[in-house]
Amino acid sequence: MWFLNLFIVAVMPVLKVILLTGVGLFIALDRIKLLGPEPNRYLNNLVFYVLCPSLVATSLAETVTFQSFVTLWFMPLNLLLAFFFGSILAWLLIKITKPPKHLQGIVIGCCSAGNVGNLPLIMVPAVCEESNSPFGDPSVCSMHARPYASLSLAVGAIYIWSYVYGVMRLYIKPGIENGSTPETLPTSSTQLAALPSSNGHSNPMHPTGFDGTIAKMSASKKIMRRIKIISEKVDLKKVFAPTAIAAIVGFIIGTASPIRKLLIGNKAPLRVLDSSAYILGEAAIPCMTLIMGANLLRGLKGSDVSRTVILGIIGVRNIFLPLIGIGVVKAALYLGLVASDDKLYQFVLMLQFAVPPGMAVGTMTQFFQLGQCETAVIMLWTYVVAAFSLTLWSILFMWILTW
């Protein structure tokens, strides 16, 4: 019975995602046409610019205080390690399977960015309510469950909308500012010598100096020249997504006590701003899932993603990363970085390595208008497998924590 109850707890949030995806697919059918290409694009822009930023900003502002951040400081590092190891495994997968250029960013996104938001928000409190839960008193466990899951959502969103967004942007839309591929930076001494000098003329190869060696441009000048070239190509306003900016705002509100007292809490004078943003944020996850379902309809008609790539991503997210997560948390315990008596916190840290890819990856591909179908197909199969693997890993995590 304990296994069955845990299976239901773990499988329900995944099934909800699959069912909502099915709804999105249905309303995108040609006979329905409620979520065709144009409405899909408009809805995605609404998610990208309004709903996701609202969700992340309110989650951080309401759950993160300066004290909680000091106490739970290892969670951002744990998530960073999950993204790092996921990226390494994605790089190996790309080397083996050699997918097309525009799919390589999607592979990195799906392998590195897990659904560390809405799945833990549903799963962790539900696990606390189980009578046989290894996390002690259900009331005490539930009191800590939402802050842990909310911090996971917020920190994960920062990484997804900064690192993953930047990586996918480079792979999917190189030179997005002007529609052209960025110029190759000069690397060799001959190329550097041929760069224009301050008087507008090419720099000739320098003559041999008194010591008989060839004079070269100093390392500092090379670095400054490259930084200048890169800074001219990059528009920071376009690199950083609205959700990443919202995460910074939410963190400032949560940790700055005077601002927090103005906005957060039942007695806050400006609490209506926070509650309004929270209502907007609640719509982000279902809207993202509906968009994924609409893209899946096109993906089922044909996509460029191969079975080998899909199996590789499933292997990374459902086998290798959870094993790495166990090692990371055990190492943190050994080094004294995580409190040994907080089993629920350790469970959340391990769970962050075992979840399927984050839905925000699909939002990004829809925003870039490339790779939406392939991402939807990848999401479908990874979530179908996660319905079973997430349950098995949750049981194993609990057994390890009680052993």
Give a description of the structure:
- The chain is mostly helical and 403 residues long.
- It has a single domain (2-176, 234-402), classed as Up-down Bundle (Na+/H+ antiporter like fold), CATH 1.20.1530.
- The protein is 73% helix and 0% strand.
- It has 18 helices and no strands.
- It has helices at residues 2-27, 37-63, 66-71, 74-97, 101-112, 118-128, 138-172, 189-193, 219-233, 236-239, 242-255, 257-263, 271-282, 284-300, 307-334, 343-354, 360-368, 372-402.
- Helix 1 runs antiparallel to helix 18, helix 2 runs parallel beside helix 11 and helix 2 packs across helix 13.
- The two termini are 20 Å apart.
Which fold name fills CATH's third level, the topology? Na+/H+ antiporter like fold
Order of helices and strands: HHHHHHHHHHHHHHHHHH
Rounded to the nearest angstrom, the distance between the terminal CA atoms is 20 Å
Percent range for β-strand residues: under 5%
Structural class: mainly alpha
Low-confidence stretches: 174-216
Which term fits the overall shape? globular
Helix content: over 70%
Query: What is the domain tally?
Result: 1
Mean pLDDT reading: 78
For the CA atoms, what is the radius of gyration? 24 Å
Q: Quickly name the level 1 CATH class.
A: Mainly Alpha
* Count of individual helical segments: 18
Q: Major β-sheet, in short?
A: none
